[in-house]
Every structure is written in structure tokens, then in C-alpha cells.
């Protein structure tokens, strides 16, 4: 069984607390990946809304230095995936493989040249906003729109090969980004708003627009995004999101975006080793092994394979 998870906040939590990335207090622990045939994880540097300009650039720099130290310290237990050859190796490698990401386009500090610097640092995905507005666009809890700088930044991201992540955008900025881009965008950790009405989730139209472009959408495990009321999420409630999005043509679109170490996640799935139980729930509910494997691994793998091959 293989897993490809498109979002966690473990790197930022561990850096803040002075822990290694395999700390036992984390939801995402390296040892939990050892039982899988392949486990690819996007590790995001989460930059809070209040950290802006040069402070945001320095914040990223400190976390990037920590990440590089962790790669050296943890050796073969954490395998960096900056390019296509590394991704192809990760496909057949047991243990944790990591793609570096950023949550918060404020990482650029409003400077277009920073897009290439972030790319050269190994980042292959940037979530354009968190909940508030920044120099690029409007977050889901604010009313901003894609700015002129935001348009330049997403064009540069497309040119270089940084995936444009539309999770956390407000609705207006979401459509602004679609209008300003040509290549497939993706939503690393967003669910269906038709199933759970939280504004962080995607409308049916938004999901279909991502699908039409050839993007992918990662199922978020956060209680608040799974069921209205936000308590006691069950596998059946998670499957309801998958069922609904499959009806919209999501067979080659759906993926995983756990949000480990960044959200309140129910005990049934709060550790990677428990993903096998969710996988079995898919099989028990008639999804079939081929579809379950697409959701758990191959849809996300295919998206990032095309990105790293320069085909996006």
C-alpha cells in the first residue's frame, strides 16, 4: 500500500518546539511510514498571516535551514524529493519521502525575484494565502482579490515549476487565479462545501474547474471541514465527501491532504499508521482497490510527476 499526502504542518511545529521531525509527540511520525510500500509527504512551512515582508522571508529561511539539517540528521529515514528522478525513486522506496512546500505566499515578501529563490531552495508547492489577505491574494476569512503582484507571482511559479495551491483562497481570489493561470492548479487540503458548508471547502464548480485543468484535490482530515458542527468525524462522513466529488468526475482528481499537526483530527485517523483502516473503509464501501489506490497515491503522484517533468 502506498500513500501520497499533500499537506501537513509538522515541519513548522517541530521547528517551533525544537524537536526533530520524528518526534513522538507529532501526529505525523517517520516510523509510521515504515509499513508502507511508499509514503510521499508534502512538508509545508506555514507562515502566519501577521508575518510579512522581510520577516516572512527570514521566517522561511530559518525553517529551510532547519529542514536541511533534518535531512542530514535523519539520513535515509527522510528522503528529499526536489526533482523527477527523486520522485521516481520514492515511488518504490519504503519510508518517508518529502516534497518541500510553503503555506503562505507572503514568503515572497512582495518581491518577484523571491519566487525563483524559493524554487532554488527546493520548494515545489506554494499555498497562495492562509486565512487572511497577503501581497498575492485574498484569504478565505478576508475579502481581498488577486493583486497585480499576485498575477506576476503565479506566472513566475508556472514558469519555474512551483505548483499553485488554491486551498485557503476566498472564492473571488480562486476565480481570479484561474483567470490568471493556464496550467493545472491544485487544492492540497480542501473538502466539499456541498457536504460540509465551511467556507474553506470547495464548491462543486470550483472542484470541477480544478478537475477540468487536470489538477488534484486532497481530502482534509480536520473535523471542522468534514462535518457541520465539527465534532467526532467518522469514516462515513469522510466517505461522503469522496462519494459526492466522485459524482462530479473526481476519479482522477481525488487525493489526500491530511493536515497532520495543523488541525484537530479524530482519533480514528490521527496517525499515518491508521490510514490502513481508512483504506479498508474505502474497500468495504465498494470503492474498489484501483480507485482507492488512485485516491491514496496515484492521482497526487501523477500530478507531481508532470510538474517535476516540466509538463505542467
Model description:
This protein has helices at 10-17, 53-74, 84-91, 113-120, 148-160, 171-180, 204-213, 223-226, 235-247, 275-284, 289-308; strands at residues 2-8, 38-46, 78-80, 96-103, 123-127, 163-165, 217-219, 254-256. With 312 residues, the chain is of the alpha/beta class. Strands 1, 2, 3, 4, 5 and 6 form a six-stranded parallel β-sheet that branches. The chain has a two-stranded parallel ribbon with strand order 7-8. Helix 4 links the parallel strand 4 (96-103) and strand 5 (123-127). The model has no long low-confidence stretch (mean pLDDT 97).
CATH superfamily: Metal-dependent hydrolases
- How many helices does DSSP assign? 11
pLDDT < 50 stretches: none
Q: Give the domain tally.
A: 1
The percentage helix is 40-55%
Oligomer: single chain
CATH top level label: Alpha Beta
Second-tier CATH architecture: Alpha-Beta Barrel
User: Structural class given helices, strands, pairing?
Assistant: alpha/beta
Distance, first to last CA: 27 Å
The percentage of residues in β strands lies in 5-15%
Write the H/E string, N to C: EHEHEHEHEHEHHEHHEHH
Q: Let me know the number of strands.
A: 8
**Describe the biggest sheet?**
6 strands, parallel
Mean pLDDT across all amino acids? 97
- CA radius of gyration: 18 Å
Amino acid at each position: 500500500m502506498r500513500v501520497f499526502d499533500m499537506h501537513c504542518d509538522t515541519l513548522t511545529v517541530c521547528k517551533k518546539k525544537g524537536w526533530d521531525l520524528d518526534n513522538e509527540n507529532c501526529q505525523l511520525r517517520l516510523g509510521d511510514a515504515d509499513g508502507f510500500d511508499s509514503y510521499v509527504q508534502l512538508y509545508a512551512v506555514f507562515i502566519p498571516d501577521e508575518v510579512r515582508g522581510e520577516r516572512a522571508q527570514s521566517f522561511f529561511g530559518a525553517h529551510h535551514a532547519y529542514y536541511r539539517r533534518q535531512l542530514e540528521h535523519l539520513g535515509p529515514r527522510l528522503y528529499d524529493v526536489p526533482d523527477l528522478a527523486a520522485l521516481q525513486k520514492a515511488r518504490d522506496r519504503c519510508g518517508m519521502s518529502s516534497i518541500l512546500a510553503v503555506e503562505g505566499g507572503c514568503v515572497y515578501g512582495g518581491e518577484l525575484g523571491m519566487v525563483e529563490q524559493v524554487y532554488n531552495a527546493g520548494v515545489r508547492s506554494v499555498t497562495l494565502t492562509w486565512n487572511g489577505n497577503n501581497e498575492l491574494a485574498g484569504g478565505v476569512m478576508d475579502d481581498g482579490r488577486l493583486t497585480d503582484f499576485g498575477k506576476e507571482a503565479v506566472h513566475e511559479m508556472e514558469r519555474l515549476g512551483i505548483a499553485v495551491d488554491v486551498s485557503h483562497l476566498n472564492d473571488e481570489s480562486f476565480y481570479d487565479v484561474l483567470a490568471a493561470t493556464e496550467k493545472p492548479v491544485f487544492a492540497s487540503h480542501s473538502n466539499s462545501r456541498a457536504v460540509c458548508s465551511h467556507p474553506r471547502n470547495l464548491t462543486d464548480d470550483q472542484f470541477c474547474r480544478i478537475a477540468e485543468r487536470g489538477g488534484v484535490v486532497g481530502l482534509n482530515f480536520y473535523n471542522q471541514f468534514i462535518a457541520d458542527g465539527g465534532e467526532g468525524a467518522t469514516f462515513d462522513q469522510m466517505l461522503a465527501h469522496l462519494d459526492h466529488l466522485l459524482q462530479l468526475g473526481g476519479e482522477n482528481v481525488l487525493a489526500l491532504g491530511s493536515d497532520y499537526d495543523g488541525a484537530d483530527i479524530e482519533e480514528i485517523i490521527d496517525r499515518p499508521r491508521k490510514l490502513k483502516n481508512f483504506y479498508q473503509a474505502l474497500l468495504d464501501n465498494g470503492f474498489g482497490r484501483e480507485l482507492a489506490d488512485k485516491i491514496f497515491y496515484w492521482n497526487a503522484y501523477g500530478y507531481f510527476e508532470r510538474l517535476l517533468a516540466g509538463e505542467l
